[in-house]
Design goal:
Layout: E1 6-21, H1 27-47, E2 55-65, E3 69-74, H2 81-94, H3 99-103, E4 106-119
Antiparallel strand pairs: 1-4, 2-3, 2-4
């Protein structure tokens, strides 16, 4: 009997540069950029010959904190700017960024990655 596993294939990976302080998140503008990225990701999935439900699109902020360290922080929802900023600060602190630096972090990019998971 042949054993099968899951193979992950990235069909879209793009980052749109921005530069806003974490404390100054404008959700409408961020939603628009992510919407454009998701549309492009959907097109890439289709071009690869797959249905949309065959892919997962992950989104993240590229954040710069402290000594110019850049970290990617997963963003699963965009409903409340204050909660979102608090989530990012917690993630930065968990990654080893000092709390004071985490609170002063800047969002320097919005990233989307479309991943196909296929059985091999």
């Amino acid at each position: 009997m042949r054993e099968t596993g899951t193979h992950r294939r990235i069909v879209f990976d793009d980052t749109v540069p921005i530069d806003v302080p974490l404390a100054g998140i404008e959700l409408d503008a961020i939603r628009r950029v992510f919407s454009e990225l998701f549309d492009r990701a959907a097109q890439a999935v289709s071009r690869a010959g797959y249905d949309q439900d065959d892919a997962v699109v992950e989104r993240s902020f590229v954040c710069r904190a402290g000594d110019a360290t850049e970290l990617h922080i997963a963003v699963e929802w965009l409903s409340d700017a204050d909660r979102l900023a608090a989530q990012v600060v917690r993630a930065l602190i968990a990654a080893g960024v000092a709390e004071a630096d985490a609170r002063l972090a800047r969002i320097v990019g919005l990233k989307a990655v479309a991943i196909l998971e296929t059985l091999s």
